[in-house]
Amino acid sequence: MLDSQGEQLDRIEEGMDQINQDMRDAEKNLEGLEKCCGLCVLPWKRSKNFEKGSDYNKTWKATEDGKVNTNGPRVVVGDPNGGMITGGYVTRIMNDARETEMEQNLGEVSGMIGNLRNMAVDMGSEIESQNKQVDRINQKGGCLTDRVDTANKRANKILRNQ
Predict the structure, then answer these.
(1) What is the dihedral sign for C-alpha 149, 58, 14, 138?
(2) Do 144 and 16 touch, CB atoms closer than 8 A?
(3) What would the pLDDT profile of 93-149 be if each residue is shown by its tens digit?
(4) Beta-carbon neighbour count of residue 31 at 10 Å?
(5) 84 band by pLDDT with thresholds 50, 70 and 90
(6) Which of 9, 33, 39, 4 is nearest to 161 (CA)?
(7) Do residues 9 and 137 lie in contact, with contact meaning Cβ atoms separated by under 8 Å?
(8) Number of domains the chain is built from
(9) Taking CA 76 as the corner, what is the angle to CA 70 and CA 78, rounded to the nearest 5 degrees?
(10) At 71, is the secondary structure helix, strand, or coil?
(11) Which superkingdom, per the lineage (predicted)?
(12) Largest distance between two CA atoms of the chain
C-alpha cells in the first residue's frame, strides 16, 4: 500500500515538474507578445522573472528526491542465531522436552517480534519520506498557482491592449 502511494506521489511530482516546464515556455511566449514591434521589451512594461524569486528557488531547487538511504537496511538477514537471544528464556528446572519446546517457541516468537519491529521501523521511515514529498508537492502547487495567476493576468492585459 505504501509502495503504490509512493508511486502516485512520484507521478504527481513529475506532473508538477512538467507544468513548471510548460509555464516556463508560456512565459517566454508572453514575453514575445509583450515586445514593442516584436523586437524589444519596453522597460516600464517588463514583468519580473518568476524563476529569479526566492520562493521559486526554495521550492524547485531544493528537492530531496533521489537521496541515498545512508542508514542501510534495518532487517538483519542471515543472523546465525535466527534472531534469537542466546541466553535462554526459560529457567530450566526439570531439563525436559517441555522446557526445550517452550524455549524454542519463545525464540521463534522473539524472532517474529523482531521482524515486526523492523517492518514498523521501515514503514515509519517510508511514511516520513512520503510526508516530506507531500510537503514538497504542496509547495510546488502553491508556487504554480501563483505563477499561473500571474501569467493569466499578463495574457489578459495583452489582449485588452490589442
Answers:
(1) negative
(2) yes
(3) 888 898 899 999 999 999 999 999 999 999 999 999 999 999 999 999 999 999 999
(4) 14
(5) very low
(6) 33
(7) yes
(8) 1
(9) 130
(10) coil
(11) Eukaryota
(12) 102
What type of residue is 117?
Answer: R
Non-local (6+) Cβ contacts of 106 within 8 A are: 89, 90
Contacts of 63 (CB under 8 A, 6+ apart): 136
Q: Which three cell numbers stand for residue 9?
A: 506521489
Residue ranges making up the domain that contains 95: 2-7+16-161
Nearest to 45 by CA among 29, 33, 56: 33
Q: Are 140 and 13 in contact (CB under 8 A)?
A: yes
Cβ pair 13, 137 in contact under 8 A: yes
What angle, 0 to 180 degrees and rounded to 10, lies between the N-to-C axes of helices 2-34 and 97-161? 10
Determine contact, residues 121/144, Cβ cutoff 8 Å: no
